[in-house]
Amino acid sequence: MDTQLKKVNRRKRISYLSSIVSIAMVLLMLGLFGLIYIQSSQLNTIIKENVLVNVYLADDINQAEIDANLAAIKKMSSVKETKFISKDVAAIELSKEMGQDIVEFAGYNPLPASIEVTLKAESVSSESMQNFKNVLLLMPKVAEVKYNEIIFGNVGTNLGSLSYILMALAAIFVVIAIVLINSNIRLNLYARRFSIKSMQLVGATHWFIIKPFVIRSFFNGLYGGILAVALLLMVLNILPTYFPQIQYLYNTQSFTVLFVILILAGVIVSMVSSWFSTNKYLKTKIEDLY
Amino acid sequence: MNKSTVIQLNNASIFQQNTLVLSSVNLEIFESEFIYLIGQTGSGKSTLLKTLYAELSLTQGDGRVADFNLHQLKANQIPYLRRKIGIVFQDFQLLTDRSVYENLYFVLQATDWKNKAEMDSRINEVLEMVGLDTKSFKMPFELSGGEQQRLVIARALLNKPAVILADEPTGNLDPETSNGIMELLHQIAKNGTAVLMATHDYRLINKYPGRIIRCEKGTISEMAMLEEKLMGN
Questions:
Q1: Residue of B107, B109, B142 to mutate, testing the A interface (most A Cβ within 10 Å of its Cβ)
Q2: What is the C-alpha separation between B181 and A31, in angstroms, rounded?
Q3: Which of A10, A13, A16, A198 is most worth mutating to test chain B (most B CB atoms within 10 A of its CB)?
Q4: ipTM strictly over 0.85?
Q5: Distance from CA of B180 to the nearest CA of A (A)
Q6: What is the pTM of this model?
């Protein structure tokens, strides 16, 4: 007898375990995609925030005007960082690059003083860059504003397209995840459809029948989510061994949000699927169960 | 002493989805009665039983089962109707992943019993009635067909129902086991619970006499004597 009971309990445990593993695998797939999305967004941000805008200043600009321009640029909401490069520093840097003293070669310092500006990623687009350039050109003693418009345009366009592709893929992956978790739960409940009907026929209310299935789904979703997060953490730990540069793209805050979303998705999708599937069998006529 | 009515149908039409199966159905069943529901396969026996336990709606005519008005029954009242009737199937429909005791305990939990001692006492009582008092720890698949059907009957008796609706309860059982089930059902009827049993087995009807209702030609009719019918055949 004990052996039979053990067999039944073992079968139940295997069924719960396979359900948890299935949910975890689907969430892992979704999580991996989430990681790719986060990493590409992070890369996008880094690329955008590394695009330099050079603000060249007139030769007759004085220190007070430089300070005023610097302060005005720093105040702009789209600006991330500024760096003033004097005529002398510019000459030294160019001389280093050329391997020859540019002042000695030209007989004078031909390079203007400039302010290097980097922008916040969210402010970077072809249109906003043009507006930014126009605003800078209106400042006193600003001779020229330069940035690589071609590269900039390509970065904007490519990253924009990539982001749309990733969003479309994200939507598809979310749908796939929901369908797979839902099918898994429906399959489990299909196996118990006669039990559900029996419960109904002995006078159990709908809620009394549904409750244990929904509670079980809550835990299956929770454990599945936790397992998926654990596997993702493993992936995140292993990746830098093979791709050391990737850890510069790691963003703990985004990862935490992703992990919470995955666990919540596991729990919510499981519970909702369980609710609907149980309800479906409660509404099905006996003869339609066969 | 007048016996109270547990089932009453007046000019009822019985539908299976949109198909009319039985019409002009008039039926009155009293407590302690044992009634056979006979008829060919597809004649509407099971459909009539399903209507009585509200698996199918009664949309035309009047019907009362254990003081519940079938015609005006709301979905949320159905569980409470089913607590007043016991349903017994040919294919048992037990919870196969729970022991005998757990099958019965589940029903009591589901029907708002709270006191564990009272629940245990009632479970022991019904198991004793059906002769399964030593098997409460067994799993359903460890029981014979007859024992499983006894367990189903025990389950049906838990809430002291006004009527037991049995759909071919001996259909899967050998003659000897069937006799045991019939004796049990008749004993239940004698104790006050009406039993309405759908069957094809005239041998059982002959051996354990009772009132006979026949489903035929889209309606039901009462048969006075089975012997007459058998002789006529």
A1: B107
A2: 58
A3: A198
A4: no
A5: 23
A6: 0.74
